Amino acid sequence: MASALVFLASGFEEIEASTIIDILRRSGVKVAVVGLVPGPVEGSHGMKFVPDKSLEEVSAEDFDAVVCPGGAPGYENLRRNHTVIAMIKKAFDSKKLVAAICAAPAVLSDAGVLRGKACTIYPGMEKELEKGGGIPEKDIVVVDGNIVTSRGPATALPFALTLAERMVGREVSEEVRRRTLADIALK
């Protein structure tokens, strides 16, 4: 069974985190929601999520993908965490899927995994990608090798479906797309 680690830092974007977790689980991916701090983690709009595990309980080697939701100050809290940065590097070096949405591609830039990669980020933050050698694109989801990036809350559904396709295949992703009516909404 494919597995994914979804980081949760205080100030995460709730739409992005819940959509990623939900779509991946519907697709049969074993998802571990990993909090940077013990206990419930509060998002940028006051919603609290209860992680499955804490950062100290997991290792990048245990997952096929690591995913960073955006949100402010969530992405800032991710980028300041040395363990998160190390896990992103380890996953990337191991050819695992490394993904981020909204402002969180800045975390991937800080981790040094965007050099020479096409990528995207929340509009107006393109310099964050360039700092790490990334090549900014305007598409809502950009895939370059084992890197998947997306632009923001409204792009969470196509982003999550792309992750599902990469992890468990097009057939499963298309079935989830149909069952959730994303095939109608994302025309």
How many beta-strand runs?
11
Q: Briefly note the structural class of the backbone.
A: alpha/beta
CATH superfamily: Class I glutamine amidotransferase (GATase) domain
Beta strand %: 15-25%
Low-confidence stretches: none
Rounded radius of gyration (Å): 15 Å
**Structure annotation, total helices:** 8
Helix content: 25-40%
So, CATH architecture? 3-Layer(aba) Sandwich
Distance between the termini: 30 Å
Main sheet record = 7 strands, mixed
Give the CATH topology.
Rossmann fold
Neighbour order of strands in the largest sheet? 5-2-1-6-7-11-10
Number of structural units classed as domains: 1
- Helix and strand element order: EHEEEEEHHEHEHEEEHHH
**Tell me, what's the shape?**
globular
Round the mean pLDDT to the nearest integer and report it: 97
Write down the CATH class.
Alpha Beta
Describe the structure.
The protein has 187 residues and is α/β, with parallel strands linked by helices. The chain has eight helices and eleven strands. It has helices at 14-26, 74-79, 82-93, 105-111, 126-131, 156-168, 170-179, 182-185, and strands spanning 3-8, 30-35, 41-42, 48-49, 53-54, 65-68, 97-101, 118-119, 135-136, 141-144, 147-150. The longest helix is centred in the N-terminal third of the chain and has 13 residues, at 14-26.
From the structure above, extract its key features.
187 residues, alpha/beta, Rossmann fold, two-stranded antiparallel sheet, 38% helix, globular
Quick recap of the structure?
This protein has helices at residues 14-26, 74-79, 82-93, 105-111, 126-131, 156-168, 170-179, 182-185, and strands at residues 3-8, 30-35, 41-42, 48-49, 53-54, 65-68, 97-101, 118-119, 135-136, 141-144, 147-150. With 187 residues, the protein is α/β, with parallel strands linked by helices. It has a single domain (3-185), classed as 3-Layer(aba) Sandwich (Rossmann fold), CATH 3.40.50.
